């Protein structure tokens, strides 16, 4: 999946939320769960566009296309946040986090949890690097 995913329209975003939440899914399942009533052909067109944009893939079961996300929701969200960080804060995630704290979007407990997760991730990466070097 490309690091620079194209923007999604409202309907595409709603369909992707369904794919992430209920995947793998067929066009019929998506159509039944959408908040608005659409023809199945319209839903298939949206799913095809999501494939073209790199958000979804499909397999074939008999004659039915079964769709699944190309990447987990969290990874796509992280890429979207990175784009925002690059646009508005010249790539400074620290500036974004400080802004989130200043605007009361994150509290002290959430910051501690985030710091713990970062420390665990760094430790895990360090172990993986050591494993590669010892062989």
From TrEMBL:
It holds the Pfam family Penicillinase_R. Belongs to the BlaI transcriptional regulatory family. SUPFAM superfamilies: Winged helix' DNA-binding domain. InterPro entries: BlaI_family (IPR005650), WH-like_DNA-bd_sf (IPR036388), WH_DNA-bd_sf (IPR036390). Keywords: DNA-binding, Transcription, Transcription regulation. This is BlaI/MecI/CopY family transcriptional regulator.
């Amino acid at each position: 999946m490309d690091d620079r995913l194209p923007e999604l329209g409202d309907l595409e975003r709603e369909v992707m939320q369904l794919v992430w939440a209920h995947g793998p899914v067929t066009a019929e399942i998506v159509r039944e769960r959408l908040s608005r009533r659409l023809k199945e052909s319209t839903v298939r067109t949206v799913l095809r566009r999501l494939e073209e944009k790199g958000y979804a893939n499909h397999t074939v079961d008999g004659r039915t296309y079964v769709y699944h996300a190309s990447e987990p929701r969290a990874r796509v969200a992280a890429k979207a946040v990175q784009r925002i960080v690059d646009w508005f804060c010249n790539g400074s995630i620290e500036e974004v986090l400080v802004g989130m704290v200043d605007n009361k979007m994150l509290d002290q407990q959430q910051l501690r949890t985030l710091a713990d997760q970062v420390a665990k991730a760094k430790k895990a990466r360090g172990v993986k690097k050591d494993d590669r070097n010892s062989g």
